[in-house]
Design a protein that fits this description.
The chain has 705 residues and is an alpha/beta fold. 34% of the residues lie in helices and 12% in strands. Helix 14 crosses helix 15, helix 15 packs across helix 16 and helix 20 runs antiparallel to helix 21. It starts with 20 loop residues before the first helix and ends in an 11-residue tail after the last helix. InterPro entries: A-glucoronidase_C_sf (IPR037054), GH (IPR017853), Glyco_hydro_67_C (IPR011099), Glyco_hydro_67_cat (IPR011100), Hex-like_dom2 (IPR029018).
Length: 705
């Protein structure tokens, strides 16, 4: 892997200058090389063969580029040089009959990440106004393979490609110090952190450089490098550990990725010795302004701060009688002159709820805390709202808070790591789930979607962007389960284009990651992952009831695990029925948070979708779904079918496993063994639970314990 010199030390100001004209034309920059100790994911050498076997001209004029763009320009040249060195092509001048031309040209395109492609006269031509766009164009050619050069995928008409939003982000929940409960990476199921080890930032950041390359090839351009649950040691990333953030940022920069840090509201006290963190206190305001000055002096292209405040024990402005807008805007003022962003997470709720109280509803919290302050947040504040009102469940309603803040920049937050979907021990592809959520029309058919709101195409026209919790660790396969790489890849591709077909993205990932696989082998992987989200839903929590997992670990079936806890995650199952009454008429009133028509659709049992019936209503087990089945029979049938689907996937895998590299085959086989055992537990425990609650037998007479 190409490791910039900055990986070994912090760059000085002189190091960060733009390249000279001679350096712009230098193609001898150290290039990416294979590391046999780490799986190449979707960038194996073979994926570059169609490009690297051709004559390539790279034209990037000498210009007063930003530091970010200047380093990306060097990356483009290094990628091309490595590809042709490996696959027999050549780097040529533009006048020397190239097959491929990668050109930065002056034009009116205001998006520095946009690029155009066209094929004519035997030449595939990529143009961009900025080296960042050229880098994305290069990876576009890699994705297309031979079709990029034979005229079958790119025609003579110029096609423009541009991201739907400028903010396409991954949040790492990595801890510098190993947490006694959550470990090195909170909700991390792929080994340790690629950034930290033994309480310090790793000396060798080669792995981070490889990661940056993978992210750029999928479309990600922002990364937060530490956990939102910021501990005392992590707070020091704004202080004496700032040089280590500089080192990480230096590794991300060559691939066009900006670095962010999660900060603690308590930082003025932890680092500055202040006795208050009141956002109206002049000393607090000055402390944050000084901290921002230090960070941007060290990292001129720093992205901004991510903060979780007044949530699950994290400190915030509430203790001073201030609002979230007060807190966010104080931080926004501190970073504004640097062009920085404040990502203020809306995951705020009462985590000490009384389970006896059916009116206090965790699902209502984000709307209640943030919607009243719409229009009061500063322009450089992005309110980051989870896609659903609870917590990244396999099936929950979309968050009404996302649609309730047209005068605020809102980012939709997702989770690539599968906290509630099998811990990357189960083969579960989330592209279909995300696509369904992103395309949800908040005001009815044909109206603005979740993706429209996040990208500034909804009411108010305020672009926030997309953010998601990363699923990467120092595991050799990056994501624990090799097939979980598909989720990381799909996240980047869907943030670039939320309207893209998630199944086409899946096939794209399969083709890149396993380039030598037969058509039959590719079909096996496709069949395993295509409807795996729906399969997981079948054998876990039914009909939008949510959770039913073991507390704390969030893995495995425990139907009553959270039922009497203070976390507000109940299903209220009794002998007569199950579900949470969130109606205005008789329940918590949550349905009123939605705009028409959804408020009335969800309010009525006659119109609520089957898959969300228990999310919005408490119903008898004999309630007949629109499918024609009763709730109880649906539970039995889906849990038996879910296990059968997993067994079919395993049988298909066993027939094809020999075609895969031995390390991949071994890991996938191992994970399938775990998934089979877990799925069997889910089937038997959930079915037994409902049989004993309801007393209603399975119509098919299958064995339930």
């Amino acid at each position: 892997m190409w490791l910039p010199l900055c990986c070994k030390r912090s760059q000085t100001a002189a190091d960060r200058r733009a390249p000279t004209p001679e350096e712009h034309n230098d193609v001898s920059t150290p290039a990416p090389v294979a590391d046999p100790a780490v799986h190449p994911a979707w960038l194996p050498d073979a994926a570059f063969a169609p490009l690297g076997s051709r004559r390539i001209a790279v034209e990037i004029p000498a210009r007063d580029w930003s530091t970010l763009s200047a380093q990306v320009a060097q990356t483009v040249r290094a990628e091309v040089a490595a590809a042709v060195a490996t696959h027999g092509g050549a780097v040529v001048d533009a006048s020397d009959a190239p097959d491929v031309a990668l050109v930065v040209i002056a034009h009116n395109d205001q998006d520095p990440e946009a690029f155009t492609v066209a094929h004519g006269g035997g030449v595939t031509r990529v143009t961009a106004a900025d080296p960042r766009g050229l880098l994305y164009g290069l990876f576009h050619l890699v994705r297309l393979g031979e079709a990029a050069f034979d005229g079958s995928a790119i025609g003579e008409d110029v096609e423009r490609h541009a991201p739907a939003t400028a903010l396409r982000m991954l949040d790492h929940w990595d801890n510098i110090a190993v947490h006694p409960v959550m470990g090195q990476v909170e909700r991390g199921y792929s080994g340790g952190s690629i950034f930290y080890r033994d309480g310090v930032v790793r000396e060798d950041l080669t792995r981070v450089a490889r990661y940056a390359r993978l992210l750029a090839a999928s479309g990600i351009n922002h990364v937060a490098v530490n956990n939102v649950n910021v501990g005392p040691l992590e707070t020091r990333l704004l202080g004496d550990l700032l040089p280590d953030v500089v080192r990480i940022a230096d590794v991300f920069r060559p691939y066009g990725i900006q670095t962010h840090v999660s900060v603690s509201w308590a930082a003025p006290g932890r680092l500055g010795g202040l006795e208050t963190s009141d956002p109206f206190d002049a000393g607090v305001q000055q402390w944050w302004a000084d901290a921002a000055d230090r960070v941007w002096a060290a990292i001129p292209d720093f992205g901004g701060f991510v903060i979780k405040a007044d949530s699950e024990g994290q400190p915030g402005p509430f203790v001073y009688g201030r609002t979230h807008a007060d807190g966010a805007n104080m931080l926004a003022a501190a970073v504004a002159k640097h062009g920085g962003l404040i990502h203020w997470r809306a995951f705020v709720y009462n985590h000490e709820q009384n389970w006896r109280d059916r009116k206090t509803d965790r699902a209502k919290a984000a709307y209640q805390h943030f919607a009243p302050y719409d229009g009061t947040f500063a322009e450089n504040v992005v309110v980051q709202i989870k896609h659903g009102p609870l917590d990244f469940q396999v099936r929950e309603a979309t968050s009404p808070a996302i649609a309730a803040m047209p005068n605020t920049r809102v980012a939709a937050e997702f989770q690539v790591t599968t906290e509630y979907l099998g811990h990357q021990k189960h083969a579960v592809y989330l592209g279909r789930m995300w696509s369904e959520l992103l395309s949800f029309p908040y005001w009815g058919e044909g109206s603005a979607t979740m993706a429209d709101i996040a990208t500034g195409r909804g009411p108010g026209g305020r672009a926030g962007g997309f953010a998601a919790v990363s699923n990467v660790g120092d595991d050799v396969f990056w994501t624990g389960h090799p097939f979980s790489q598909a989720n990381l890849y799909a996240w980047g591709r869907l943030t670039w284009d939320p309207t893209a077909d998630p199944i086409a993205i899946l096939d794209e990932w399969i083709g890149l990651t396993f380039p030598g696989l037969s058509a039959a082998g590719r079909q096996v992987v496709h069949a395993i992952l295509d409807e795996s989200w729906e399969t997981y839903e079948m054998y876990t929590a039914p009909l939008g009831v949510c959770f039913m997992v073991y507390p704390h670990s969030h893995y495995g079936p425990s139907p009553d695990g959270y039922e009497y806890t203070p976390w507000g995650t109940y299903h209220f199952a009794d002998r007569d029925g199950i579900g949470v009454d969130r109606t205005v008429a008789t329940g918590s009133g949550y349905t009123a948070q939605y705009p028409a028509p959804w408020a009335s659709v969800y309010e009525s049992l006659d119109t609520v979708p089957d898959e969300l019936v228990l999310f919005f209503h408490h119903v008898p087990y004999t309630h007949v779904l629109r499918s024609g089945k009763t709730v109880i029979q649906h539970v039995y049938d889906t849990h038996f079918e879910g296990l059968e689907r997993v067994e079919a996937s395993i049988a298909a895998w066993e027939a094809a496993a020999a075609e895969f590299p031995a390390d991949v085959a071994g890991r996938v086989t191992e994970r399938f063994a775990e998934q089979l055992g877990s799925t069997t537990d889910w089937r038997d425990i959930v079915n037994t639970y409902f049989l004993r609650k309801s007393g209603l037998p399975d119509e098919q007479g299958r064995r339930i314990y």
